[in-house]
Automatic annotation (TrEMBL):
The keyword Metal-binding is assigned to this record: yes
Cofactor(s) for this UniProt protein: Mg(2+)
Name this protein carries in UniProt: Diacylglycerol kinase
Transmembrane residue ranges: 29-47, 53-73, 94-114
InterPro entries given in the database record: DAGK, DAGK_sf
Keyword entries, A-Z: ATP-binding, Cell membrane, Kinase, Lipid biosynthesis, Lipid metabolism, Magnesium, Membrane, Metal-binding, Nucleotide-binding, Phospholipid biosynthesis, Phospholipid metabolism, Transferase, Transmembrane, Transmembrane helix
Subcellular location as annotated: Cell membrane
Pfam family for this entry, one: DAGK_prokar
Binding sites annotated in the UniProt record for ATP: Y14, E74, K92, D93
Species this chain originates from: [Eubacterium] hominis
GO CC terms: plasma membrane
Amino acid sequence: MISFLKKYVNKFRYAFGGLFHGITHDRSIFLQCLIAVCVIIVFAFFHLTMIEWVIVLILIGSIIALEFINSAIETIVDFISPEYNEKAKIMKDYAAAAVLVMSIVAAVVGLMILKGKL
């Protein structure tokens, strides 16, 4: 039973280690987190409903999670293909595009929420 708990505690420790490392060592992840904090501060002045906050937080979490996945993909591709490779570039571009698409959707939804508050 102790080893079972230790195993799961370690999983959380590794996950939080990855979170901390990503925020402190990856500029894109740090930027997304900084933008998230700014959005939360700005939206706090608009008295959002509970469902609006849930939507905003899901979008923020999705973008940050996608940025972590994007960074992981970039790291793997750079490790496997240290030399320039067109297919490696395409893989990295696709991962970056996923973050861009989610960011655009989040911005549109955020503006829709704010429009209803003005």
